[in-house]
From TrEMBL:
Claim: Coiled coil is one of the keywords in the record: yes
Name this polypeptide is given: Uncharacterized protein
Gene3D superfamilies xref list: 2.40.50.100, Helix hairpin bin (1.10.287.470)
Domain of life: Bacteria
Protein's cellular compartments: Cell envelope
Keywords: Coiled coil
Length: 80
């Protein structure tokens, strides 16, 4: 799920979007609240992003192990 919202400051209307898609788990402001630049307005469920991050980290570890193994084989071959 993805969503967009509208902030209506006294001077202009500003659209808000997030780089993450997902379910909004908490809305941190109410209509009429004054907010400042950089203030979080809502939270998005981050479980999907964390799962993808874990998979990417595992792939990096596997690639690093393969590189180490290839370097060891290269070193062994160079000694012969």
């Amino acid at each position: 799920m993805a969503g967009a919202g509208v902030v209506e400051p006294s001077s202009e209307v500003i659209d808000i979007r997030t780089a993450l898609s997902g379910q909004v788990t908490a809305v941190l402001v109410r209509p009429g609240d004054y907010v400042t630049r950089g203030q979080p307005l809502f939270r998005v469920d981050e479980r999907g992003v964390r799962a993808r991050l874990g998979g990417a980290e595992a792939a990096i570890r596997e690639a690093s192990a393969a590189i180490s193994e290839a370097r060891a084989a290269e070193s062994t071959a160079a000694r012969r």
